[in-house]
């Protein structure tokens, strides 16, 4: 089962990456059985916490989002995550030959590497049930660091490249990931100008 890889990547990542490489799952099945499920954690938790729990900044009063606003932002976040994983997977495949990756019959390894490397970020979404900004920032920072390490660890195994080239490869991919992140932020500002921004209420 694909979801079993989520736990294996935390306990024995090298063996898990080798197993992922052998599976050659199609991108469609990988998306339906893994990405669509785990990527929903953060938007669902964010909806619950922002619409029902609320948060405070300093000594200010409790702040919440309206249910409609929280739902809209959660759905947009979910879609952005799905597009981001696909874009990162496409970049992995596109750069593969540049860094000496071996040719594969099923070109799904890039998507698999992107999806499974994002596992810590997906699971960090549970932290949003405790809507304290500094706590969420720390949890997601740790998740990003571990996700980057997972990608570095998995590149030589999944893509069949030399360990020495993985440093440059993962550096290029992290740059792509940063561009994707900035693009989503810009997209958010544009959407807010069209009236799909947050609507706050006092708790």
Describe the model.
- With 203 residues, the chain is mainly α.
- The chain has one domain.
- 72% of the residues lie in helices and 3% in strands.
- The protein is built from nine helices and two strands; from the N terminus they run H-H-H-H-E-H-H-H-H-H-E.
- The chain has helices at 4-11, 13-23, 27-38, 41-53, 67-95, 109-117, 119-124, 133-159, 163-193; strands at residues 63-65, 200-202.
- Strands 1-2 form a two-stranded antiparallel sheet.
- The protein is elongated.
- The relative contact order is 0.16.
- Its main location: membrane.
- It comes from Marinobacter subterrani.
- It is a multi-pass membrane protein.
- This is Yip1 domain-containing protein.
- The chain crosses the membrane at residues 31-55, 75-96, 108-128, 134-155, 167-194.
**Rg for CA atoms:** 18 Å
Question: Helix coverage percent of residues?
Answer: over 70%
The largest sheet, given as strand count, sense and whether it forms a barrel, is:
2 strands, antiparallel
Class from helix and strand fractions: mainly alpha
Runs in which pLDDT lies below 50 for 5 or more consecutive residues are none
How confident is the prediction overall: mean pLDDT?
88
Listing every helix as H and every strand as E from the N terminus to the C terminus, the arrangement reads HHHHEHHHHHE
| Strand arrangement, major sheet | 1-2
Q: How many E strands? A: 2
How much of the residues is beta strand, in percent? under 5%
- What's the tally of helices? 9
Keywords: Membrane, Transmembrane, Transmembrane helix
Transmembrane segments: 31-55, 75-96, 108-128, 134-155, 167-194
Membrane topology: Multi-pass membrane protein
Subcellular location: Membrane
């Amino acid at each position: 089962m694909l979801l079993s890889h989520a736990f294996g990547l935390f306990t024995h990542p090298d063996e898990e990456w080798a197993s992922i490489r052998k599976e050659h799952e199609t991108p469609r099945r990988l998306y339906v059985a893994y990405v669509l499920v785990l990527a929903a954690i953060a938007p669902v938790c964010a909806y619950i916490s922002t619409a029902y729990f609320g948060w405070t900044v300093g000594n200010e009063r409790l702040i919440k989002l309206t249910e409609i606003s929280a739902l809209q932002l959660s759905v947009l976040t979910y879609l952005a995550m799905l597009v981001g994983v696909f874009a990162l997977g496409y970049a992995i495949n596109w750069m593969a030959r540049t860094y000496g990756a071996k040719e594969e019959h099923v070109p799904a390894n890039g998507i698999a590497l992107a999806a499974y490397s994002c596992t810590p970020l997906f699971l960090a979404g549970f932290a949003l049930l405790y809507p304290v900004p500094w706590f969420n920032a720390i949890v997601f920072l740790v998740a990003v660091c571990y996700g980057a390490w997972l990608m570095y660890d998995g590149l030589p195994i999944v893509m069949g490249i030399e360990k020495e080239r993985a440093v440059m490869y993962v550096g290029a991919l992290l740059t792509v990931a940063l561009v994707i992140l900035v693009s989503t932020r810009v997209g958010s500002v544009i959407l807010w100008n069209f009236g799909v921004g947050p609507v706050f209420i006092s708790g």
